[in-house]
Design a protein that fits this description.
This protein is mostly helical. The chain contains five helices and four strands. Helix 1 packs antiparallel against helix 4. The protein starts with 8 loop residues before the first strand and ends with a helix.
C-alpha cells in the first residue's frame, strides 16, 4: 500500500500545470523541438501548441522561446522564467510527496487490515454455546 497524490498549479480559471504537463515542458527543452516533445509525450503538435499558448496567456509569462537559426538547428527551448518555474514546481511537488509519505506512515503504522474471520470450528462452537 502506497500513498499517491496529484498536484497542480492552476492559473486562474485557465489551464493547470501538473506532473504530465511539466514533463512536456522538460521534453521541449531536452529535445529542442515542440514536435518531437509532443510525439514522445503522445499528443499532437496542435494540442501541445494550443496548450502552450493557453498556459502562457494565463501565466502572464513565456515558458518557451524559439531558438535562433534556421533549418535543423532551429527549434524551441524553455525560457529562463520557464526553467525557474519548473524548478519551483518540482521542489513544491517533491516536498508535498515527502510530507504525504511521512503522514501516511504515521497514520498507518502498526495497522493490520487483514480479514479477521473465525475458523469453521470456532464458529460451530460459538453457535453451539448460544453465541
Amino acid at each position: 500500500m502506497d500513498p499517491k497524490i496529484r498536484v497542480w498549479v492552476v492559473f486562474g480559471k485557465g489551464p493547470k500545470l501538473g506532473r504530465g504537463r511539466a514533463q512536456l515542458l522538460r521534453l521541449i527543452d531536452e529535445r529542442g523541438s515542440l514536435r518531437r516533445a509532443a510525439a514522445e509525450f503522445g499528443i499532437s503538435y496542435r494540442n501541445a501548441w494550443g496548450y502552450l499558448q493557453e498556459l502562457e496567456r494565463a501565466a502572464g509569462f513565456k515558458f518557451v522561446e524559439r531558438m535562433p537559426g534556421g533549418g535543423p538547428r532551429s527549434g524551441m527551448r524553455l525560457t529562463t522564467a520557464g526553467r525557474d518555474f519548473l524548478a519551483c514546481y518540482q521542489k513544491f511537488r517533491l516536498g508535498l510527496e515527502a510530507a504525504t509519505l511521512r503522514s501516511f506512515v504515521r497514520a498507518f503504522r502498526g495497522k493490520d487490515f487483514k480479514s479477521r474471520t473465525r475458523s469453521p470450528e470456532r464458529s460451530a462452537r460459538a453457535k453451539a454455546a448460544g453465541g
